[in-house]
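Protocol step 4 of 5: obtain the predicted structure for the target chain.
Materials: sequence only (see below). No template structures provided, no constraints applied. The aim of this step is simply to have a reference model before the mutagenesis design in step 5. Sequence pasted as it appears in the construct record:
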Amino acid sequence: MKEEKGFFATLFDISFDEFITTKIIKFLYVLSMVIIGIGALYGIGAAFHSSVWMGFLTLLVLAPAGFLICLICARIWLELIIVVFKISENTARIANHTKPGE
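Step 4 output (structure tokens):
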């Protein structure tokens, strides 16, 4: 069984034997939640600046719906990235267990 490298060892590995994306994907998801949340707060502020009624509509309906839709899209995108890396890992595992010429 191959030993996993640390974050910085993987970062400076020029042979690309290990992937860094699988190590930072959780951070990317949290970062996307924060950015989407800040965008929702900015939208609420802009809506209240426009009018009080638009502000309340955005606060109660538009911002939560937009936040959830954007968060779902970010989650799906990150999951698709992980699926590609899992396929790569499983394909490498199969290739390592298969004899040449079979």
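Step 4 remarks: Residues 7-83 form one domain. Helices lie at 7-11, 21-50, 52-97.
Proceed to step 5.
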